[in-house]
């Protein structure tokens, strides 16, 4: 009788061991899948990090280029204002001098008068030259709003 009980007990223990072994195998397979998913995620992360680094380099170059172009623009505007002042002085001199009116034809005098009038009006009003970008409106992306610090970039990463 005890032998039969041991055989019966042995049968249920064996089934329990088989169930435990199946659970271990399922867990092992799930761990393998998770390990593969982790490997793929690390590879994707490395790819995205490399892309981000390349974009940061492009951003740095673009910021530098914007700064260079802004400096060129300011120099060109200063030179233009200097040349406009010189032209204004020449026009005023020609219009004031009596010999200037005599040496010039009526047509030349009228052209110079028109130029002098326009230049005098422009000199009294703030200098407004046409540009590719209308700077009179409050743009969200005006060049004066460009910030060269990285605080916003740092906040996005955290």
From TrEMBL:
GO MF terms held by the record: GTPase activator activity
PANTHER family attached to this UniProt entry: RAC GTPASE-ACTIVATING PROTEIN 1
Gene Ontology CC annotation, any one: nucleus
Biological-process GO terms, alphabetical: mitotic cytokinesis; mitotic spindle midzone assembly; Rho protein signal transduction
Protein name, as recorded: RGAP1 protein
The keyword Coiled coil belongs to this UniProt entry's keyword annotation: yes
Chain segments annotated as coiled-coil in the UniProt record: 38-97
Record keywords, A-Z: Coiled coil
């Amino acid at each position: 009788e005890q032998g039969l009980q041991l055989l019966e007990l042995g049968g249920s223990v064996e089934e329990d061991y088989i169930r435990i072994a199946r659970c271990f195998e399922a867990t092992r397979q799930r761990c393998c899948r998770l390990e593969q998913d982790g490997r793929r995620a690390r590879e994707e992360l490395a790819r995205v990090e490399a892309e981000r680094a390349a974009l940061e380099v492009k951003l740095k170059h673009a910021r530098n280029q914007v700064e260079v172009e802004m400096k060129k623009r300011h120099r060109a505007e200063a030179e233009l204002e200097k040349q406009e002042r010189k032209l204004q002085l020449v026009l005023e001199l020609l219009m004031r001098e009596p010999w200037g009116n005599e040496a010039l034809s009526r047509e030349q005098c009228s052209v110079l008068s028109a130029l002098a009038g326009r230049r005098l009006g422009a000199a009294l009003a703030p200098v407004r030259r046409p540009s590719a970008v209308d700077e009179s409106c409050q743009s969200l992306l005006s060049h004066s709003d460009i910030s060269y610090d990285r605080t916003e970039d740092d906040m996005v990463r955290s």
